[in-house]
Amino acid sequence: MTAAAAACCDDRGGLGTVPAVVRPPNPLRKRFHQQLEDIDTKVVRLFALVTESVAAATDALLGGDAEAARQLAGRDTLVDRLEDDLERLAERELFMQQPMAGDLRYLISVLRVVPELERSGDLATHIAQRATTDLASRLTPTVRGQLDRMGTTCVRMWQAAADAWIERDAGAVEVIDAMDDEIDALAAQLTAELESGAVGLTESMQTTLLCRFYERLGDHAVHITERIRYLSPGT
């Protein structure tokens, strides 16, 4: 018996436990998980852009800042490009790697979340565009205050949604859903104020549209956190 063979024998002459073979990491799997990390970095960036846009949109609207509205339109172009890039990357990994379990759920989630983010960026741009007509200067202090509160609540929702994505927080949907109820309540108050004839017909129509934009921003934040619940481990 050779020395190597003897080393594998136990005291009774039988074969002992053979040390496990250490296999080098699969380079394809390593590349795949690096791609997933890169995708997630881009998704977080997209959340940040949309959250910043929602905040900037209300500031531009209420301040009548046409230049800020134009800058926001430029940022929306970046949001569109990032969405296209993310969809291309996620689809490529799905087709090339045929992932299973958690990786599959993650890539499907990306493909469903990024269009909601892109549409939310569009909504922020639509809100800011009303600054170019200086709409806010023709509204009552009450109406402006209600729009301000809707905008502030939307920003809180989007900040919470971004945090939920980063932390994979399955419980965040209840918190964000409660904030969405706040948006709905503010929308009802604003609608009642407009129906009282507080502002002119044209201004009332434009403000009603703004109200709907904020409601949709809230809905998108809720939908995204529902997707995070599906993505989170153990759900």
Describe the structure.
The structure is a single chain. This protein has seven helices and no strands. The chain has one domain (27-230): Methane Monooxygenase Hydroxylase, Chain G, domain 1 (Up-down Bundle), CATH 1.20.58.220. Helix 2 packs antiparallel against helix 5 (141-167) and helix 3 runs antiparallel to helix 4 (101-129). The longest helix has 37 residues, at 27-63. It is elongated. Helices cover 78% and strands 0% of the residues. The model is unreliable at 1-24 (pLDDT under 50). It has 235 residues and is mainly alpha-helical.
Provide the fold topology:
Blueprint (H helix, E strand, L loop, with lengths): L2 H4 L20 H37 L2 H32 L3 H29 L11 H27 L4 H24 L5 H31 L4
Helix pairs in contact: 2-3, 2-4, 2-5, 3-4, 4-7, 5-6, 5-7, 6-7
Average pLDDT across residues? 86
Number of domains: 1
User: Structural class given helices, strands, pairing?
Assistant: mainly alpha
Largest sheet: none
